[in-house]
Amino acid sequence: MTHVFSYDSHPVHYADIASAARTGGRHVTELPYVIRVLLENLTRHRSWGGPVSESEVQAVLDWQHRSGADLPLHVTRVILPDSSGLPVLQDLAALRDAVALQGGDVAAVNTRIPVDVIVDHSLQVDHWGDASALGRNLAREFERNDERYRFLKWAQQAFDGLRVFPPGTGIIHQVNLEHIAPVVVRAERPDGAWAYPDFVIGGDSHTPMVNALGVLGWGVGGIDAEAALLGHAYTFPVPVVVGVRLSGRIVAPATTTDAALLITQALREAGVAGCMVEFFGPAVEQLGVAERATIANMSPEYGATCGFFPVDANTLAYLRTTDRDAAHVDFVEAYCRANHLFRAPGAAAPTYSRLVDIDLSQAVPSMAGPRRPQDRLPIADIPADFRSRLAAPMSDGGFGVKPDAATPAAPQDAPGLRHGSIVLAAITSCTNTSNPAVMLAAGLVARKAVALGLTVPPWVKTSLAPGSRAVTQYLIDAGLLSSLEALGFFLIGYGCTTCGGKSGPLAPEVVAAITEGELVAAAVLSGNRNFEGRIHKMIRANYIGAPPLVVAYALAGRIDIDFEHEALGTSADGSPVFLRDVWPTPEDVAALLPLAHDRNLLARTYDPANANANAAMWDDLPAPTGLRFPWDPASHYLVEPPFFKGPLDDDALTRLEQDLARTHVLAAFGDSLTTDHISPGGEIPTDTPAGRYLLDAGIAQRDFNSYVGRRCNFEVMTRATFANIRVKNLLMPETEGGVTRHFPDDVPMSVFDAAQAYARAGQSVIILGGKEYGTGSSRDWAAKGSALLGVKAVIAESFERIHRANLVGMGVLPLAFLPGEGWRQLGLDGTEVFAFHHVAQALLDGSPIDVQAQGARGLTRFQVLPQVLTAAERKLMAEGGIPKSVLRTFLPTSISEGSL
């Protein structure tokens, strides 16, 4: 099924999708484009002699009836932010040490495919509000992360194919979209030139943003990324593919962000979790890549594996305006047309598992909040919704404010603050800063506001963190950056800041006012995540939306403003100024868009000759050399991880069955527990196990860095697991934070201390959860930390895809209650002793596991279903997880077990 097309008078080989479809009894036009990419991947690797069977090729052709079958995919490349990239590379360094200890070939532990690490998750907003913020934040970033960055420089010389983009380049997904992604790969093999689709997995859940370019890719845990970059097949089940027909047009004053929030809400309600979403319909042709990227970026928020837009004329236009080589753009078109991966205007839709219709004209100016990105609210509905939540109990989505405190007196040191006051407004994240239309709209709102004499209240912390330096340049060229700065939106750096929990401190008087008045303060940001405790520990109500709305809310200074009837402020002549008075017209924005679409802009942005001060600081960092990393035993940043130590257990399933014969519940949770709750990424409080560990090590609080910054210290991260300040363990229903009850003595203590006590007693533990357990970012530490706490199984009503796979990768068994059941529905309260029966057999054949829970109210019997979905995952569980499985492949064949 290998064919050849001629390009530039040279033959180029490719795995022909249409021929593979015909051989399997299908016509290529029936197949969704994502299925075509998967089919090409299997067919090509089979032709190259890879271990791909005919039945696996047929499984993807029968995708509508074979969902869940096992596919051995080979990704083209891996892309990682420093937050997950550093732990991945640290694991590889530890793997080299383990291999060396057993007499294996250290050099064999190497990257087998291209790997890009973009340093973008370590920037914090320590300084803001003036022109010095950029330089001061940069200096503090390098000061905090000196050890981490020197390790990255060592890794770049130690591993083939690893490329590191230093701090200040931009946010991973925007850099991927506008600079890295080739869309089609051209490679030389012994039999000649080959062409095939770019296919990427990333260590951040928003990797699907690149789906806007027609590049198939999605987020995985760092654990999966490790195996893939070492050359192992990436095992993935045959997906359910949902076709989403987009119709209508986005009507002003709505923006692309409002359409993305509409789509997120609709698809979350439609139940596309774990599915592949493919967009088609008349509206798609009207959406440029920047608009598609805003929608694709949100796929983790609607729960899908990807949000795919096939290659078309708009793709080619974007490649040209982002300074891709003209010959390469022609090559992309030639290959995609030859191999049925190019979608022509008006092309008939493929066959999908099911269809969802969304009319973009229904989008209106909206924000999503106060806790979840799928909870979209038209801005007109926010005031009433916020007020209704104030006194509502937290169990009902409220804030639990006592009725007599619902309207507190304003604190003396910050007289403007009350419930609903906005104390943080951030234009940040990959979601929107890759979209010039909404960024220019934000600048235009600022320009009009400044011209009318409006100002932002002094209690609002404002910041601007673009996705790349190109954004700053076109705002300067449009004359809009100065207007944003006049309202306090000074450039603070390039990175995932507020959206990822690196908001930095609030002003002391604001903190004092919130604390004194027990205020429910609010944040607005142009991000994609607003989970509890993520944005800032002092801010309980968090809303995401378009950049121009972030500016508008900052001007208002409160979230409960009725924009239709209440003024943003007063102009210099005393007249009220409403949102409609500063909102730009589509024509205003369109007039400036050519500045952002100038291909020379991207050429200058990524030209090494124009490298900024960040790159110079990076180049000046000293770093070790050699194949093995010299661990510093005194370091509290880079601590050799324990995952490759201990016995290589040949019978992990038997051990697991023994561990689950009698277990206690470490913690019990309700619905939508996120990976932010399990493994927080922001500030490290002093009164937590992680904070006390650092203080005991002689580290001052100002040098704690964030949980993200300490991810290469397993001692910190194990103590951080289930330690989010807003996590609600229902074993302690009246308390927030990482606390639990230890059984059988029923003593309250931290989750970490309880886990230690169980471990000393030789007792394993489990976690109880509700629906959508593990929603959120693809944090491998949510699974690693669970495993190190001694968690052997998690029973939930449903799981988010990435976290479920990460649990399997760490040898933790994910289990689902039967449909309609849950721990609360069964009358359990988490105080019971649990016993699981026939675990090993159930993992082999997928049968239910019988569970007995003995508690004060008697014995409860029920069944759970193993969520180990593929043969490869069953093998991983049998080997004790990915670290031990990978280690085996590099050891001499004579070594099958033993202490490492």
Task: Please characterize this protein's 3D structure.
The structure is a single chain. It contains 34 helices and 32 strands. The protein has 900 residues and is an alpha/beta fold. Among the domains are: 367-605, Aconitase, domain 3; 652-679 and 727-879, Aconitase, domain 4 (Alpha-Beta Barrel); 680-720, no CATH class.
Distance between the termini: 46 Å
DSSP strand (E) fraction? 15-25%
Tell me which CATH architecture of the domain at 367-605 applies here.
Answer: 2-Layer Sandwich
Radius of gyration: 27 Å
Oligomer state equals single chain
- What's the number of extended β-strand segments? 32
Order the strands across the largest sheet as they lie in space.
24-27-28-29-32-31-30
Task: Kindly list the characteristics that best describe this protein.
7-stranded mixed β-sheet; Aconitase, domain 3; 35% helix; 6-stranded mixed β-sheet; Aconitase, domain 4; disordered C terminus; 18% strand; 900 residues; alpha/beta
Q: What's the short story on this structure?
A:
Belongs to the aconitase/IPM isomerase family. By secondary structure, the protein is of the alpha/beta class.
Structural topology:
Elements: E1 2-7, E2 10-15, H1 17-23, H2 33-47, H3 54-61, E3 70-73, E4 77-81, H4 82-101, E5 115-118, H5 133-144, H6 146-158, E6 162-165, H7 172-180, E7 184-189, E8 192-197, E9 199-202, E10 216-219, H8 222-229, E11 234-237, E12 241-247, H9 256-270, E13 276-280, H10 289-297, H11 299-302, E14 306-308, H12 313-321, H13 326-338, E15 354-359, E16 366-368, E17 376-378, H14 382-391, E18 422-428, H15 430-433, H16 436-451, E19 461-465, H17 469-477, H18 481-486, H19 508-517, E20 521-525, E21 539-545, H20 547-556, E22 569-570, E23 576-577, H21 579-582, H22 586-596, H23 599-605, H24 613-619, H25 652-659, E24 663-668, H26 675-678, H27 689-696, H28 714-720, E25 739-742, E26 747-750, H29 751-760, E27 764-768, H30 780-788, E28 791-796, H31 801-809, E29 813-817, E30 833-837, H32 839-845, E31 849-855, E32 858-866, H33 871-879, H34 882-890
Parallel strand pairs: 4-5, 4-9, 5-6, 9-10, 12-13, 12-15, 13-14, 18-19, 18-20, 20-21, 24-27, 27-28, 28-29
Antiparallel strand pairs: 1-2, 3-11, 7-8, 16-17, 16-21, 22-23, 25-26, 29-32, 30-31, 31-32
